[in-house]
């Protein structure tokens, strides 16, 4: 099913939702991670995410509280809908154990979160011609699966 049809089915099932705005994206940088992370969101284990604030495009809007998101798998197929509940900007070295746990990945510890995100962000920064350090601003988002 395409994203717009999926979104319209969601809106029909939830007539109290009057917004027409939603963001659409897949998590991760590989097909394998996109499928795994979409699955973790669908089963309710992944309820948070983190991105590098510096790497948002100038014309790319930041997630905002109340925003709906259609989560995609590796084949750009919609898996579920989330709603953003909390956003905050903190430096990489100040991301908390609680946030790491809510990201739902690996063993859900801060140590594994830092290891995996350090490698992920270092690669993203390198591809952007920039240098990663542990004080980069991170955009932390907490969401809830709503369908």
TrEMBL record:
Organism superkingdom: Bacteria
ASCH domain: residues covered: 25-147
InterPro entries according to UniProt: ASCH_domain, DUF984, PUA-like_sf
CDD domains: ASCH_Ef3133_like
PANTHER family per the UniProt record, alphabetical: CYTOPLASMIC PROTEIN, CYTOPLASMIC PROTEIN-RELATED
Protein name per its UniProtKB record: ASCH domain-containing protein
């Amino acid at each position: 099913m395409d994203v717009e049809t999926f979104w319209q089915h969601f809106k029909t099932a939830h007539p109290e939702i009057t917004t027409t705005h939603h963001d659409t994206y897949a998590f991760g940088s590989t097909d394998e991670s996109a499928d795994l992370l979409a699955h973790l969101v669908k089963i309710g284990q992944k309820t948070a995410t983190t991105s590098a604030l510096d790497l948002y495009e100038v014309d790319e809007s930041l997630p905002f509280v109340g925003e709906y998101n259609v989560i995609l798998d590796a084949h750009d197929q919609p898996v579920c809908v989330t709603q953003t509940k909390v956003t905050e900007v903190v430096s990489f070295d100040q991301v908390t154990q609680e946030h790491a746990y809510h990201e739902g990945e690996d063993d859900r510890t801060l140590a594994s979160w830092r290891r995996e995100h350090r490698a992920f962000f270092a690669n993203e920064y390198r591809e952007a011609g920039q240098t990663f350090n542990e004080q980069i601003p991170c955009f932390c988002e907490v969401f809830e699966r709503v369908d």
